[in-house]
Amino acid sequence: MRIMKMTCPECLADATIRKTNRRHPQLADVYCSCTNVECGHTFVISASFSHTISPSALKGQGRVKELIDALPEQDSDKALELLLRAKKTGLTAADREAKRMPGTAKM
Question: Staple partner for 19: which of 31, 71, 99, 104, CB 3.0–4.6 Å?
Answer without folding.
Answer: 31
